[in-house]
Amino acid sequence: LKAYVTIVIDAAFVVRDLKIISGEGGLFVAMPSKKRKDGSYRDIAHPLNQQTREILEERVLKAYLDFIKGGSGTPTS
């Protein structure tokens, strides 16, 4: 786990607790999830299609990388 992320969509909707994770293939964005009674996890917010997922991940990772390069402030995109 590299970071927790909060995104704001169109200054009208907030999604908290996305995670930036370093995996075998590099960094990726995990959607917020809730642990179920059986021990599995289920996303509680997520993109409905691959194109939206790619746009979201691209913007979140760009903001994160800009932030760690600059070292101060709150990343925004």
Give an account of the 3D structure.
There is one protein chain. By secondary structure, the protein is α+β, with helices and mostly antiparallel strands. Helix content is 27%, strand content 38%. The chain is built from one helix and five strands. It has a three-stranded antiparallel β-sheet. A hairpin with a 3-residue loop joins β1 and β2. The longest helix has 21 residues. It starts with a strand and ends in a 7-residue tail after the last helix. The mean pLDDT is 92.
The helix-strand sequence is EEEEEH
Mean pLDDT reading:
92
- Low-confidence runs: none
Q: Percent of residues in beta strands?
A: 35-45%
Characterize the main sheet. 3 strands, antiparallel
Structural class: alpha+beta
Euclidean distance between termini CA atoms:
21 Å
Q: Which percent bin holds the helix content?
A: 25-40%
What count of helical segments does DSSP give? 1
Q: Order of strands side by side in the largest beta sheet?
A: 1-2-3
Write the layout of secondary structure elements.
Elements: E1 3-9, E2 13-23, E3 26-30, E4 33-35, E5 41-43, H1 50-70
Antiparallel strand pairs: 1-2, 2-3, 4-5
